[in-house]
Amino acid sequence: MINSVVEPMNNIVIDTNPLIYVYHDVPDVGKNYAVLLGRLAKKNALLIPKIVYGELSLAFEDEKELNEFLGDTGIIIGEMTPESYVIAAKRWETYNKRRVVMCAKCEKKLEQLICTNCNSRIKIRQHILSDFLIGAYALQMKGSDLITNNGGYFSTYFPELNIITATLGAPSLS
Known about the structure:
The protein has 174 residues and is of the alpha/beta class. The protein has a domain at 10-82 and 129-167: Rossmann fold (3-Layer(aba) Sandwich), CATH 3.40.50. The chain contains seven helices and ten strands. The protein has a six-stranded mixed sheet, sandwiched between helices. Strands 4-5 form a two-stranded antiparallel ribbon. A hairpin with a 4-residue loop joins β9 (162-166) and β10 (171-173). α1 packs across α2. The termini are far apart. The model is unreliable at 1-6 and 168-174 (pLDDT under 50).
């Protein structure tokens, strides 16, 4: 009888953008993410939270096509815990407090924007709460990695995660 060692599978969470690049066969980057995902799928569980499923639904003709894509790639849709939602909200709040608004022309940092009609403060959001939900879901997976094309942002607000990207050169683990 042959003894074989079964390596435990790691959880790898995938952000929306790499999957869109793969599905739409975006030149270079889509192929690199396809190669990366194929390689990682051999020894890991590939997961997305339901928010990624929702975002992906906009890139597909219909739900059937999306489900076939996920089935073909072996990607599993996961559930978030209530605690993960709280983590996402708190980190999103931190993001909003840190963000600096700059003039696109002269690059002067603006303390705040005020509506000229009612004098209310105007908030500009560059990253939406769904980005933070994806990061919090990856944290929930305990020791998981996150595949994304937004490595800098996730590294800043989720430094506990191992960020994996596929550059234009070749897929790499960071």
